[in-house]
Amino acid sequence: MADNDKDQEKTEQATPRRKEEARKKGQVAKSQEVASVAILLACLTYFNFDSARLVRKMMENLSGFLRSSGTLLINTDNIQSLAVNWTYEFFILIAPLLLTVFIAGLLANFVQVGFLFSTEAIAPQFSKIDPFKGFQRLFSLKSFAELIKNIIKLCVVSYVAYVTVKGEIDGLPSLMDSSVGDITVYMGAVSFKIILRTSWVLVVLAVLDYVYQRWEYEKGLRMSRQEIKDEFRQTEGDPLIKARIKRIQREMARKRMMASVPKADVVITNPDHIAVALVYDQMKMFAPVVVAKGAGFLAERIRELARQNNVPVIENKPLAQVLYRMVKVEETIPENLYRAVAEVLAYIYGLKEKRVAV
User: How far apart are the C-alpha atoms of 38 and 170, rounded to whole Å?
Assistant: First the structure.
């Protein structure tokens, strides 16, 4: 009983088939932190190269709106068209940013799991809205690990931001004599520095989180020895059934072989332990072919069938042993045995001619 319980422990690595089935269900090793960091870095890169144009366009649109606000007539007839136009202009303005976010998120997930489309993953599951199961997930070990991870991330990011701001304190008094534009530029530069340093910290945390998610994924797919045996039976077939199929196939092949014995030209024996039946048709074959062979009881059966059908049985111990060992059924004899077999066939043909003459 103890051994049976031990076998049920999931201690074995998941098989490729188990992983493939899990992948079809959308169960893959993926870290949301990787996608978040990728999007953050992509946004930083975009703002670094295109923030000036974005700010300029926003100021131009705002200025145009303020200039026309005094003369713009808004009523029920044109409010819809105005809203559509403003929304369209705003969308065109931020479209490059949205495209950047979309591509970054797509690439981050593709790098982690490759191309994957699973209908089972997006199918509605009523178990997710079960209050009892939701309560269990809320206080599960996984939720606790996520909480610890988020606390650590918050503490690390806060510390990096604190250190960065602390290094800029000495330059704050000089801002009192600066213009609003210079102050805004300075604040933007400091903010960018904070976000950039924080991003590199988040990159490290994302890598660690991916490693953890990969470990948890592999652990969740572990199988017991019994599950591996059951899967093997499903994919390769039950060993007992396979053995029976092979036995039936051998029996059918043996029957076909024995049916060829009456058509043989000669049976060469050991004399008692081995029997090999040969066929040679000068018009269709370039060399004799072994149509049946066997040892022990099977050899005795071949000799018996040969005698019942008037097939000559010739004793040639060395030749019988070589043919039995080297040539398979329905194969042509090798070239180095041509001479020895030709002598046997010549002897058989000579006997047949004498019988015809008599």
Answer: 33
Task: List, in order, residues 6 or more apart from 35 with CB less than 8 Å away.
Answer: 104, 105, 108, 109
What is the tens place of the pLDDT at every residue in 331-350? Answer: 898 888 888 888 888 888 88
Q: Is 192 helix (H, G, I), strand (E, B) or coil?
A: helix
pTM tops 0.70, yes or no: no
Three-state DSSP state, 274: strand
Q: How far apart are CA 266 and CA 277, in angstroms?
A: 6
Q: What percent of the chain shows pLDDT beyond 90?
A: 5
How far apart are the C-alpha atoms of 328 and 291, rounded to whole Å? Answer: 9
Dihedral angle of Cα 126, 132, 138, 141, to the nearest 10 degrees:
-100
Residues 336, 338, 341: CA angle, nearest 5 degrees:
125
Q: Which two tokens stand for residue 351?
A: 């006997």
Using CA atoms in the order 224, 229, 235, 239, what is the torsion angle rounded to 10 degrees?
A: 180
> pLDDT grade, residue 3 (50/70/90)?
very low
E-state strands within the chain? 266-269, 274-279, 289-295, 313-315, 331-332
Instruction: Encode pLDDT of 227-258 as tens digits.
Output: 777 777 766 656 666 777 788 878 887 888 88
How is 118-181 classified by DSSP, letter by letter?
-HHHHS--GGGG-HHHHHHHHTSHHHHHHHHHHHHHHHHHHHHHHHHHHHTGGGSGGGGGS-HH
Distance of alpha carbon 101 from alpha carbon 36, whole angstroms? 10
Residues 6+ apart with CB under 8 A from 60: none
> What's the order of all strands across the beta sheet hosting 289-295?
313-315, 266-269, 274-279, 289-295, 331-332
In this structure, what token pair is assigned to residue 40? 């953050």
